[in-house]
């Protein structure tokens, strides 16, 4: 919230002109009896007092600007250019044949459950012998460093 005072010069000028015109009209009238002059002077002073009070109130009033409360919409699915960096967590598996057992992202599982396998960084890819054949997998720490996330869906 911001609060600020802005002097409104137009109002001050209009109040000054009005007060001056009321004061001058009291003097420019045709001289009449003394009773009428006193009544006119008192009426003019009353009007000047009312205008002065109005100006003073306007000067003291602070104007606040209130921002409306933010509306949070329902969460939407991530756009494709962002969600393509989300790897399925169930493809993270323990491979005992790789360097005394490590968790790796299996390439076969990723092919089945992830559309962008060809876009994965090749420097994160490892090939190892499991005793029967060569296996391909990806290092999860390397993938994380390259901006990929392992998420449960």
What does this structure look like?
The protein is an alpha+beta fold. It has five helices and eight strands; from the N terminus they run βααβαβββαββαβ. The strands form three sheets. A four-stranded antiparallel sheet has the order 4-5-7-6. The chain has a two-stranded antiparallel ribbon with strand order 1-2. A two-stranded parallel sheet has the order 3-8. Strand 4 and strand 5 form a beta hairpin. Helix 1 (9-28) packs antiparallel against helix 2. The radius of gyration is 41 Å and the shape is rod-shaped. The mean pLDDT is 77.
How many strand units? Answer: 8
How would a crystallographer describe the biggest sheet? Answer: 4 strands, antiparallel
Instruction: Tell me the overall shape.
Output: rod-shaped
The number of helices is 5
Question: Taking all residues together, what is the mean pLDDT?
Answer: 77
Judged by helices, strands and strand pairing, the structural class is alpha+beta
Largest sheet, spatial ordering of strands:
4-5-7-6
Instruction: For the record, give the distance between the C-alpha atoms at the N and C termini, rounded to a whole number.
Output: 41 Å
Order of helices and strands: EHHEHEEEHEEHE
Beta-strand residue fraction: 15-25%
Radius of gyration: 41 Å
Into which percent range does the helicity of residues fall? Answer: 40-55%
């Amino acid at each position: 919230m911001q609060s600020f005072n802005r002097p409104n010069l137009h109002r001050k000028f209009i109040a000054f002109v009005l007060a001056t015109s009321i004061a001058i009209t009291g003097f420019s009238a045709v001289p009449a009896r003394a009773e009428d002059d006193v009544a006119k002077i008192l009426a003019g002073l009353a009007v000047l007092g009312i205008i002065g009070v109005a100006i003073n109130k306007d000067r003291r009033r602070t104007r606040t600007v209130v921002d409306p409360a933010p509306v949070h919409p329902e969460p939407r699915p991530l756009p494709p250019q962002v969600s393509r960096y989300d790897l399925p967590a169930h493809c993270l598996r323990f491979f005992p044949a790789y360097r005394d057992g490590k968790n790796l992202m299996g390439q076969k599982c990723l092919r089945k459950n992830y559309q962008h396998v060809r876009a994965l960084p090749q420097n994160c890819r490892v090939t190892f012998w499991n005793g029967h054949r060569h296996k391909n997998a990806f290092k999860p720490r390397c993938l994380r460093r390259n901006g990929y996330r392992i998420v449960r869906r």
